[in-house]
Amino acid sequence: MAINCFRAMRHIVVPMEVTGVRQYAAAAGKAKKGAKGGAAADAPKASTLSKEIKSTTVVGANILKDGTDPKVLPDSEYPDWLWDLLDKRPALSELRRKDLETLPYEDLRRFVKLDNRQRIKENNAVKAKN
């Protein structure tokens, strides 16, 4: 008897203010009819900015609510260390081929870090198999 009452009441919609539980629409996760995969809706839209604005400002770098995008400055206005970030650093296999006694401090430090990371991964793989 109690089960029949519950089945009859489960279709009653109770406002969120009463229950405190959020209810979702039944068709929220379903795709619209005629849409194939929804890829067209997810595709990026074509940019409406002119080439001049794109080349003189850093579009999307503004973090302030009322601010504007910063302007691109000449290379001489940026610090010297910024350009070193683009340099390629040697991989672990390349560092292993070199003599550790003659490596500069930064490369030796990188070798220790990468070698330690590799050993941790190998130990985790062995533990996962057991």
Automatic annotation (TrEMBL):
InterPro entries: Ribosomal_mL54. One of its GO terms (molecular function) is structural constituent of ribosome. Keywords: Mitochondrion, Ribonucleoprotein, Ribosomal protein, Transit peptide. The keyword Transit peptide applies. It is found in: Mitochondrion. It comes from the Eukaryota. GO terms for cellular component: mitochondrial large ribosomal subunit. Belongs to the mitochondrion-specific ribosomal protein mL54 family. This is Large ribosomal subunit protein mL54. It comes from Aristolochia fimbriata.
